[in-house]
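User: Assemble these into one structure.

Assistant: Restating your components, then the assembled model:
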Amino acid sequence: MGTLSEEILSRKVGRRVQAGEIIVVDLDLVMSHDTTTPLAMEAFYGLTRQESIQTTQTPAGSAARPTGIFDRSRVVIAFDHIVPAATIQAAALQRSIRSFAREQGLGQVYQEGVGHQIILEKGFVVPGDVVVGADSHTCTYGALGAFATGMGSTDIGVAYATGQTWFRVPETIAVRLIGQFAPGVFAKDAILHIVGILGADGASNFAVEFLGETVERMTQSERFTLSNMAIEMGAEVGLIAPDAVTVEYLRARTTRSFELLQPRAPQYAREIVVDVSRLEPQIACPPDVDHVVPLHEVEGLPIDQLFLGTCSNGRIDDLAIAADILRGQQIHPNTRMVVVPASREVYLEALRRGYIEIFTEAGALVEAASCGPCIGRHQGVLSAGERALTTMNRNFTGRMGDPTAEIYLGSPATIAASAITGVITDPRQHFVG
Amino acid sequence: MARVWRLGDNVNTDQIIPGRYNVTTDRAELAKRCLCEHRPDFAGGVAAGDVLVAGRNFGCGSSREHAAVALKASGLAAVVAISFARIFYRNAINIGLPVLIAPEAAALEDGDEIKIDAAAGVIRDLTHARVFQAEPLPEFVQRIVEAGGIIPLVRQQGRLTAPAMAD
């Protein structure tokens, strides 16, 4: 008996565990990226190098201290935050990471899009896995039924060396989605609405399980959008029970076998129910992700820059929705648009389907697969007083550049519809009939 | 005696160290940019031993450990808050930056003079002559704090050990 978190963690530690327990767990995968790896390297060396710290005597009977990477096949490093390097400083850090990877014999080093998207596409994660990443949006993998969470670099450095981490088994908030989306309303609108209901710390230290008929009908990509934003309510993980959709997603991506672990008579700390059939497009307003309003409350607000992409909504179906709206259209002269496919795979598929041509003809700037302007360092930094509307998962002050710039969040459809008008626009007009 | 730097709710790690400035592991450089836009007088005014007091959900958002590193490098004796975001809390504990959960201490105001015993969780408000007691740390977390961080602890033990399996 247990929530999905309890089921996954129980299987992993080989005994029944319950919410509230502190456990040490073997990890299936450890990830970090170009911003967080350098501090993780420091922690790793601090742990593994002989001379770095004077310690008290090793207690009798304990294992020898780790001296290297625990398992090279279970570590992924993604260059995604500032690629290609935009400054000398970033280039120097990336050089130090490449040197570390060579020294440690790490082969799974990628520079072909957002690390999370690459890890999912390459089948690194299967249901039941326990994964930690030095990036808060590691929770995205929860949509495959994996207990995956973000941590800081030191925890990741420990994980590089020991293959383990510790967790307090979380209590769970169930988020049940029922009903059918109206045309022009999407998973992004649902998760923004949920974050608005629960609040920025409404699920702090909890697991969230997304369930219900609406989730069961969602594509794997839509499910990633839900799980991706679990951290925006403070959740440790955002889980979705794996099913036939999960199996189909992984079919050509992995040869690993896995169980479709399900919650069994779970005790949820709380359950909220959201009927998506009554939902209109949602917008998160600055400066917090939980500041969510129905689109009509901010309709008509002029936008200086639109951005379609990120681990939240830079997948092929997101690009498809936007391309369908922008086909044969021009981006309004008062605004500008940046499109960043989440990965090379997404980029190539968008090329094959003609989406890159549609975006480019419409006047958007299409950038190479990466995190893009989501971290405010390059590829679309905002000036003082500017306003952006994006498919990102964060709208924090200064996130995209100047601290007086404003960031609004919405679905890919909302971003595309607003690109044509230059103001926040309800996309449902593009989905009539 | 230490000075209180009072911040509000939901201070995120982008505010503690903006993404433009965490492209380094240089402690002094991170301290220089710490809270540079949210609290522009902090980096220049903070003195060793000062205490940051915040509201709910301190350190939410990005996992960037640079935020905890920057605060520690600023010389803060502790961060006190009504509640902390999980990743930031772990980061601070891991690197030996004292973090105290003390909801009543939210009554402290910017500029108050206090005396803090982070290990005991006692915050003395000298300005208003009152004392706040922080919540005790969970036993497992206490072990990390006593070791001086997660790296020294794992070096001592050779591995991570769960409480039930502890020596």
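The beta strands of chain B are 2-6, 51-54, 78-81, 99-101, 113-117, 122-125, 130-133.
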